[in-house]
UniProtKB/TrEMBL annotation:
It comes from the Eukaryota. PANTHER family: VON WILLEBRAND FACTOR A DOMAIN-CONTAINING PROTEIN 3A. It comes from Chunga burmeisteri (Black-legged seriema). The gene is Vwa3a. This is VWA3A protein.
Length: 150
């Protein structure tokens, strides 16, 4: 419930937030088998993608940590004249976060007001459904061929 009381604020200083999360907030990381961080964002971080990816890969290698990103693309964004330190269009932002997530063995989800644009979880589910469908068709073919032999 405490999440509902939070207010949006801050910057896109991803490295500062990530360092705080892994170096301060995960004090008891050795007591847990695995941990995950979820980044909920609407834009690209201030730092370069390759810098973040290298840091994330190093941090996640140290213990079983996965970084998952939920990118929400806002259609009509009003920044009230505030120009971010780094700008990228939604597609460039998604590409950058996919690279970061790959370095962290995490999952990427991209959605907006129109719905889901991309989601690793949904991609996996659809793949499993396709495999099940193909298996079912092979089983049906096998049963049919056995019936014809009788």
């Amino acid at each position: 419930r405490w999440v509902l009381s939070l207010q949006c604020k801050g910057s896109r200083n991803f490295m500062s937030a990530l360092r705080r999360a892994v170096e301060v907030d995960f004090k008891d990381k050795d007591k847990h088998k695995s941990q995950g961080l979820y980044l909920l964002t609407t834009g690209i971080p201030d730092q370069e993608t390759h810098t973040i990816s290298a840091y994330v890969a190093e941090v996640c290698r140290g213990f079983d940590l996965q970084l998952h990103v939920c990118l929400f693309s806002v259609e009509d964004f009003n920044s009230n004249g505030i120009i971010p330190a780094r700008y990228a269009n939604p597609t460039e932002t998604a590409i950058a976060f996919k690279e970061i997530v790959q370095a962290a063995n995490g999952r990427f989800h991209w959605f907006g007001e129109a719905g889901i644009f991309e989601s690793d979880d949904i991609t996996i589910i659809v793949s499993e459904m396709e495999k099940a469908k193909n298996y079912s068709q092979k089983c049906a073919f096998l049963v049919e061929s056995l019936k014809q032999r009788s």
